[in-house]
Write a structure and sequence with these properties.
Rossmann fold; alpha/beta; single chain; eight-stranded mixed sheet
Length: about 375
């Protein structure tokens, strides 16, 4: 990636983290990510617009309305699989600018009974984005509520949960194979007082059977999705649950660092601008699926985004939209191509479904392969 690996900016959060490290000790990579994204004063997701042309990155719902529309139709079918309950909670984790939910609810108008049953819960920590979501969804026509955490949202009814580019921002721990031992990777200070990566003086030994062919210097990443999965399990015990996660990552567990920072639509070193750049890592879909199964949830997929959207009929829906809007047909075609092309998001992004074991396989997914 084309950036200066030595660049560092003394952002307000960088100064705060330096003081913390001097006062206490080096911090784990997961702690660094958590601070950069969620620090109450200077965290990226607390203070930045993040998404869209004025933010640092553009997500699938912002590329084409067809994405959100297909998610909305997916929700309708999943609701029908639940037996079309009279009340259903539609939960979105990290709703961005509200674009996905707006498009999903518009497409769901084909099933008025679904809209009559829906109560929307939006899980958002960013006050700037929450205000944008309120404006975007001002004429949604369904009950809306905002919550800081999923645990705060009601769990008194069947649940449909959607999350696009949410898992990639959950903090990961990293360990490095050093002198034959797996050692925790940390953020410390170098001789010049700058933030720098280092290794802990306390060894951490992950499961050696996970990567038997590791070499010195290899990095192992592990994301803690346990609180999320336990919340989903508890909801599924009270009422039927179907969850859809779409994110970028890899199908099979592998070694290697995937931590990256994006600011102003460009990559930079993860230590350059703490609190002012978006930090993400690739999702390990194999590990996520295995953890979900171990928790007690049923899993469908993963599938590539192209496979998932293709199974939901993205080409046919785009064709109808182009025929109805010939003046912008080229824009519609280009947006859909970006979503499903192997050189775009089609294979880099994956989809996975989690559900109550009592429900049938969720729409859009091939038979389980993990």
């Amino acid at each position: 990636m084309d950036y200066d690996p030595e660049a560092r900016r003394d952002t307000p959060l960088a100064l705060k983290l330096k003081e913390r490290i001097r006062r206490e000790r080096p911090i784990a990579v997961a702690q660094y990510m958590q601070a950069c994204l969620q620090d109450p004063e200077h965290g990226y997701y607390v203070t930045q617009p993040a998404i869209g042309g004025a933010g640092d990155f553009i997500t699938a719902p912002e590329i084409s309305q067809v994405f959100g529309e297909l998610v909305g139709l997916w929700c309708v079918v999943a609701w029908q699989q639940m037996g079309s309950p009279a009340v259903v909670r539609l939960v979105e984790l990290g709703p961005g600018r509200g674009t996905l939910m707006r498009d999903a609810l518009r497409a769901a108008k084909v099933m008025p009974a679904f809209l009559a049953a829906v109560h929307v819960d939006l899980i958002e920590t960013n006050t700037v984005l929450a205000a944008t979501q309120r404006a975007t969804l001002s004429d949604a026509g369904v009950p809306l509520a905002w919550w800081k955490n999923l645990a705060d949202a009601p769990s008194d009814a069947p649940c449909l949960l959607v999350a696009n580019e949410f898992l990639d921002a959950l903090p990961v721990s990293q360990s490095v194979l050093d002198n034959g031992a797996w050692t925790e990777r940390v953020v410390t200070l170098d001789d010049a007082g700058r933030l720098a990566f280092g290794i802990s003086d306390v060894n951490r030994m992950p499961d050696q059977g996970r990567f038997s062919q590791a070499n010195a210097g290899d990095i192992d990443e592990s994301r803690n999705e346990t609180p999320l999965l336990h919340d989903l399990l508890e909801r599924s015990r009270r009422a039927p649950l179907a969850a859809l996660f779409i994110d970028y990552g890899h199908m099979r567990s592998s070694l290697g660092e995937t931590l990256q920072a994006i600011r102003n639509h460009s990559f930079e070193h993860p230590l350059t601008s703490p609190g002012e750049a978006d930090l993400t890592t690739q999702v390990d879909f194999q590990e996520f699926a295995e953890k979900a199964v171990a928790t007690g949830l049923a899993v469908d997929g993963p599938a590539t985004q192209a496979e998932f959207l293709g199974a939901l009929g993205i080409v046919q829906r785009a064709s109808r939209l182009m025929a109805a809007n010939p003046r912008i047909a080229h824009e519609i075609e280009a947006g859909v191509a970006r979503l499903i092309s192997p050189t775009g998001m089609g294979t880099r992004f994956k989809a996975i479904g989690l559900r109550s074991a009592s429900l049938p396989p969720l729409p859009g997914f091939p038979p389980a392969t993990l």
